[in-house]
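Students often ask why inverse folding is considered easier than folding. One informal answer: many sequences map to the same fold, so there is more than one right answer. In these notes we will look at a single instance of the problem. The structure comes first.
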């Protein structure tokens, strides 16, 4: 089953407000699916094809193009790729997996740092012992005063 995104997810995808996405839907609705144009009590849902339409709108608006030019481009069938894959949108499952992977990586890093810390403590103890030996040697060489 294809992923259908909510308005808030699409807004996040394009770094725009949900109101801006709604305005784009109202303006370019002729090129969007029925679920994206929903005006009743159901929430809008955007398909991959809808995202390609909105990606072109986003890209052309970022370039400073007016709605008339964007409409003409859409009418010729032009589309663009969304700035990130819809499958990487943060959902609770994706977020949990990402956090689990991050925790695992941090645990591995902590284990490495702890090992390095033990090694450094050992080296420090050896160097402290060497310093004490050298101080005794210096005291022996200087003799009693």
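Output (designed amino acids):
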């Amino acid at each position: 089953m294809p992923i259908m995104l909510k308005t808030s997810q699409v807004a996040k995808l394009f770094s725009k407000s949900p109101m801006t996405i709604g305005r784009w839907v109202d303006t370019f609705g002729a090129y969007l699916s029925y679920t994206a144009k929903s005006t009743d009590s159901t929430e809008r849902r955007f398909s991959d094809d809808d995202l390609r339409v909105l990606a072109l709108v986003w890209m052309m608006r970022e370039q400073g193009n007016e709605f008339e030019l964007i409409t003409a481009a859409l009418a010729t069938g032009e589309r663009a790729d969304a700035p990130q894959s819809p499958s990487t949108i943060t959902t609770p499952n994706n977020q949990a997996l990402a956090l689990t992977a991050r925790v695992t990586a941090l645990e591995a890093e902590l284990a490495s740092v702890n090992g390095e810390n033990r090694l450094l403590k050992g080296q420090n103890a050896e160097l402290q012992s060497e310093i004490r030996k050298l101080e005794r040697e210096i005291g022996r060489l200087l003799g009693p005063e």
